[in-house]
Amino acid sequence: MNLLQETTIASLLHTSKSFQLYSVSQNAHLDEAIQLLADKEVLSLPVKLEEHSVDYVGFIDVLDVLFFIIQTCSEGANLEEAQWR
Length: 85
Fold this sequence. Notes:
Layout: H1 3-6, H2 9-13, E1 24-25, H3 30-40, E2 44-48, E3 56-61, H4 62-74
């Protein structure tokens, strides 16, 4: 039996602790996204076009945040003044 080939995504969803989909607007501030990731104990969030929109434009995850911080610090920039690239 090849577990990876025989297990469906649907079967994983039923074992998760929550069926709530959390998302963030593309206009949200980075600190809001980080707080939501931490509060909900998730590694990524879908990004909506607008707060009440059903249109999604991408995902943000903890690696995006980490890379942003590392890149900003390695360039000697102040995190308070940095811009997402």
